[in-house]
Amino acid sequence: MERIEEQRIEKPRSTVILNDSLPARLKAALRKHWQLYLMLLVPATFVIVFHYAIYPNLRMAFMNFRPVSAWNSDWVGFGTFEKVFQDADFFIALRNTVFFNILDIILQFPAPIILALMLNELRLKYFKRISQTILYMPHFLSAVIVASVAYVLFRPSTGLINVMMVEAGWIETGIPFLTSPWHWIFSYLTINIWQAVGWGSIIYLAAITGIDPALYEAAAVDGAGRWKRIWHITLPGIKPTIVILFIMRLGHLLGSGFDRLYAFMNINVRELAYQLSIYIYEKGLQGGNYSRATAVGLFQAMVAVMLVIMADRIVKLLGEDGLL
Questions:
Q1: What domains appear along the chain, each with residue ranges and CATH number?
Q2: With a threshold of 0.85, does the pTM exceed it?
């Protein structure tokens, strides 16, 4: 009788272990949430195909790659990198890329944070939703559309902005916003901020919603005004998000958006607009030199990895939670 009772007790235990096994739990999760996994399949496929599947093709950077001979092309080792680093145009593109990205970090990175703080302080929900929708819309406009509208608005003689400023008496002659080098820098960065600030504020607004409302109530009871609540509660609450996004932004220090640069570039500002993405297109893809294009892209990726690792280590030494 005792053996029979032990067997009856052991059977449920084995069943529980079987049901709690990893394959069984995965199968149950897939059966229960198959719609979510189906939606995840599209971005996962995109990442695998366009990010991981191309890794074997990085060997083109170490080959004298020719489309005719393909992977039977001659190996040249670091010969392509030597040619790139001996090219004066590469260092011009590198200088411009670093210069614009530093300006972008100084000017654009704080903009979504400030906007998220402003939107969070709005008390009229209807007005807040309308404002968010309007601010998000520029993100979905292509660079070609934005550049076309900008060239129409900022023409020195017939552009709407210059015409209004001349009629208001603020200026005597039109300002060449997109044809003068230094005016182009200001216009290019301003348009970039306008297009990205709304979309960039989403993640900060999400981080703000995770802050305990009781902290604001306690601070209000203690007599803290709106500015003090922002400085002592909101900003410390979203500091981990700011740190992580800042580390990720440093990884793009050598990155440059080709579509926006190509759309806004003209002969008058080519010296400033000539960045690494333009260099890769003209010296690599357009000229059929795929080895050079791959070598420059690999150089950008390696520098990005090193910058992210260094920034992560520095942040951890300062006592903050890093990314890695």
A1: 1-52 (no CATH), 84-317 (1.10.3720.10)
A2: no
